[in-house]
Amino acid sequence: MNPRLKQDWTSEDSARLYRVRDWGAGYFDLSAKGEVTVKVPFPSGDVQVSLMEIVSGVSERGLQMPLLLRIENLLDARIALLNESFRASIEQKKYGGRYQGVFPIKVNQQRQVIEEIAKFGARYSHGLEAGSKAELIIALSSLPGNDSMVVCNGYKDREFIDLGLRARKLGYRCIFVIETPAELPIIIERSKALGIRPFIGMRAKLATTVGGHWNKTSGDRSIFGLTTTQLIEIVDALKKHDMLDCLQLLHCHLGSQIPNIRDIRQAVMEACRYYINLVQEGAPMGYLDLGGGLAVDYLGSRSNHTQSMNYTLDEYCTDIVEVIMESLDPAGVTHPTIVTESGRPTVAYYSLLVFNVFDVMHFEPAPVPEAPPPQESPLIHNLYETLQRLTPATIQHSFNNTAFYRDEIREMFKRGQISLRSRALAENLVLEIFRRIVDHLETSDGEIPPELTGLREQLADIYYGNLSVFQSLPDHWAIGQIFPVMPIHRLDERPSREAIIADITCDSDGRIDHFIDLHGTRKTLPLHPVKPGEEYYIGVFLVGAYQETLGDLHNLFGDTNVVSVRVNEDGSFDVTRENQGDSIADILGYVQYNAKDIQERFRRTAEQAVRRGAISVAERQEILEGFSAGLRGYTYYGR
Ligand SMILES: *Cc1c(COP(=O)(O)O)cnc(C)c1O
């Protein structure tokens, strides 16, 4: 039975409806009180803290919605899990090498993220991957020079290379991964000039193609990596310069979020062939860097859907270790250090966005009068008749008639043949009929005609959320990424409404209108009726990867407030960092307005109004103070 028809409702029903235990990976759950909890693993067992408790603690500190909440423990837990899983697979398979994780900075460059990875990751010597000069500077300033691994991808100019070479002297295991043949002469020239031997890797363009959204990173037409001919040319050039001993790493990265484990196995198999051949060419090698690609199960469906994954982390680690051994052992090649650059699965869980709902639009009919006024158009009389004759058996027929009458009435209105008042009466009748059809559909067990499934979505509420999709969930807008979305409280109440969420920007793309479902997506989300005078909070989960710096200033909504929280073993939590979001003045500065100039201009306008006698001096003061407060304020919807 449809769980939403059940009379009584508990948190357990909500857990099933929103599938929190499927996508939450054990980090999120519901309390009996009907609130989403974050579950943090401790040696003595899991500790659960209600998100509502955190939200109210943060509100008391004066930070408004929307709010990006980071749970530091979850970042630590992910780094530990990744390293421990590889360690376990290596031990179990008696693999001869070790595992070396590096975090790709581009996935979340925020200082607090990188600092936490450097701090907590130290016990695993977790390194960093840089794709640009700016990211290399972040890496060198965050990690200690005690052999920390820094992988340099991306296009490298002379400055980039000089910095990387000098980092070697300071004690960093800084590797240049050659992306294009043009980089090699610069590396050779600069290393000779500075007298520093480089660590060199090569990025191979594998022929293996993978599924998922980012599959263009793989295959012959990938814009990244070296072709087989180029690889050989580089090997020969290194030999010529007596530098083949510098070649230690093979790199490949097939794109983010690879949903199918078979693709990963295929890619590793191909990468191993390259590796074996480079060893046979006489390069020392030692590192096999498999890039990112380890997925996050946003849908929680354990499938090969682009936003899911059909494998576990343990399977990922074991399969990689196994494929390397099966490939290298027959060739008698020593097992390399396995490097991966997993960013998405490391940080996705750690951040969630919480926002409040500031308005709701319902598509509910007003009370329908007993009978139409006799002078009304025959079409309106027809609608009345359709309404009276509506039964579960006639819904398709009634739907067709109603849509036809409605279109006719709209045509007549355009030609000036009926009044606005009559059209309003008709539209309300149409809504009443459609609403009753949807009610019949909800209770019917039979197949629903496709035309009529769309009807339910057309009548869905619009919840206006205090967020900017462009700023906070850019991938949702740009590439249709789906994140788990659900209310974070009242989950012991039945969510009796179906809704989509519109954001605060004035852009029709600023909406969340596809949601996770077991086999893909659904177009509406069950939500609770908003109670007057009470906030309704919705969470968007798993947003720690890629969303922050891809976001933009559409309609000049800026960075949200950000709060980091650390959960303690006794169930309490500390707010470890508070970052105020952008003020309006900050945002105006980004588009070249100067707050002082703006204030001065407005002051002059107000002064002229005083001179004209339009306002008093006291009013002028009040207006100017309001204006300044506005400039200092948050860019989002306040109260
Ligand atoms: C983006 C990127 C990554 C991160 O991959 P995820 O699968 O998103 O974790 C790793 N390595 C390279 C070279 C990248 O460009």
* Number of separate structural domains: 4
How many DSSP H or I helices? 22
Which percent range describes the beta-strand content?
Answer: 15-25%
Which fold name corresponds to the CATH topology of the largest domain? TIM Barrel
In the CATH hierarchy, the architecture of the largest domain is Alpha-Beta Barrel
CATH homologous superfamily name of the largest domain? Alanine racemase
- Give a short account of the largest sheet: 10 strands, mixed
The coarse overall form would be globular
Structural class: alpha/beta
Mean pLDDT: 94
Please characterize this protein's 3D structure.
This protein is α/β, with parallel strands linked by helices and 639 residues long. The chain folds into 4 domains: 1-69 and 349-361 and 463-581, Lyase, Ornithine Decarboxylase, Chain A, domain 1 (Beta Barrel); 95-342, TIM Barrel (Alpha-Beta Barrel), CATH 3.20.20.10; 378-456, Up-down Bundle (Methane Monooxygenase Hydroxylase, Chain G, domain 1); 595-632. The protein has 22 helices and 23 strands. The longest helix has 24 residues, at 420-443. Pyridoxal-5'-phosphate binds next to loops.
